[in-house]
């Protein structure tokens, strides 16, 4: 009985330590985080587009976390500065991602601000990036003989246009592009506070 009690007590202690390390301490560190300068809440269209991004599994191939140069040359790739907590202030849940089958998208709205480019790229990625392994998303578009009043067909490069047809984005495609265009985390980051006097620099 004593062994069982000791085992239970040890297990509870380990659980408490793990909870403190993985939940409590990160919460205390980040609970006062503020949005980075210039960051605004998502619009309704952008939030809907974010759901389309999630539903189509974009997070499985794309990250949203530019990394420090000691981990990857993300800055040299043009993916932006290192991400900070404030960059995700309005992201619930965050979409950090871990795989990089495709490029990091944290700042795709800066690298590719054109809605026409995004729409065409979603319909046929290889028309814009030769050899791309990204899947196309034809179900986000309607291929028809002529656009309805108020609809704007997308412009595709020669050789990728359906003969005699036009390609019109669905509302879901437009929302997804609105979300991608909103991905701009290039705002300045406040410098780290100075260390208290008497604290030596780590070697």
From TrEMBL:
Keyword terms, alphabetized: Heme, Iron, Membrane, Metal-binding, Transmembrane, Transmembrane helix
TM segment ranges: 6-28
Domain of life, source organism: Bacteria
InterPro entries: Cyt_c-like_dom, Cyt_c-like_dom_sf, Cyt_c_oxidase_monohaem-su/FixO
GO molecular function, one term: metal ion binding
Signal peptide: none
Any one Pfam family match given in the protein's UniProt record, by short name: FixO
Record PROSITE patterns: CYTC
Domain Cytochrome c: 44-184
Protein's UniProt name: Cytochrome c domain-containing protein
